[in-house]
Design a protein that fits this description.
Elements lengths: L13 E4 H6 L1 H20 L12 H16 L3 E8 L2 E10 L8 E9 L8 H15 L4 E7 L3 H9 L3 E12 L2 E11 L2
Parallel strand pairs: 4-5
Antiparallel strand pairs: 1-2, 2-3, 3-4, 5-7, 6-7
């Protein structure tokens, strides 16, 4: 049974992997546009997602095309969270490309629609991506976060990530400066 077809009205997010997402023609076709909307809205609101201005649609579509290719090659994982068949969150990791770093991956992005905050979507996405990394033989999963993103840093710590470095004042957004915080989860 395709979990995307679970009846509406569920209070829990449905977390799909890339293959489940793409096997549902309707959700797969709308994914890049829905993801773009979430990312653009969050960035407009000041979220620390790697863009200072909302990303253009074509950039998000290209990014997710690249991620799906990596997933198909065994070099990444993509998860999408749905409430009532509406995308409310997404996240992915990509394996490091250098031959000496192949057992390691970087958790690139977790993004949750502001309307779904506080519903466990970020935790469910991150936990699913950690499980995917374990299954893929990833030894160390890394991530970085902006130092003022206390909720995300708390979530990552609660799931076992530890801070291994910090670049003070590294991220500049207008006149504001933020630390870049590096975290890791040892899966060995």
């Amino acid at each position: 049974m395709n979990r995307a077809l679970i009846s509406s009205g569920t209070a829990e997010p449905v977390i799909l992997d890339a293959m489940e997402l793409m096997s549902d023609r309707d959700l797969g076709a709308r994914f890049a546009e829905s993801a773009h909307q979430i990312l653009a809205d969050l960035v407009r609101g000041g979220a620390a997602l790697g863009w200072v201005e909302p990303p253009p649609r074509h950039e998000v579509a290209e990014l997710f095309s690249h991620i799906v290719s990596a997933v198909q090659a065994g070099d990444g994982a993509l998860r999408a969270a749905y409430l009532d068949r509406r995308l409310v969150g997404l996240g992915y990791w990509l394996r490091y490309a250098r031959p000496t770093h192949r057992p390691h991956a970087d958790l690139e992005k977790i993004a949750v629609d502001a309307a779904a905050h506080g519903r466990g979507v970020g935790r469910a996405l991150t936990a699913a991506l950690i499980a995917d990394a374990r299954r893929a033989g990833i030894e160390v999963l890394t991530l970085d976060a902006r130092g003022d993103n206390g909720n995300a840093l708390h979530l990552y710590r609660s799931l076992g990530f530890t801070e291994y470095g910090r670049l003070p004042g590294f991220v500049a957004v207008g006149e504001s400066r933020y630390d870049k915080v590096f975290c890791m989860l040892d899966l060995r």
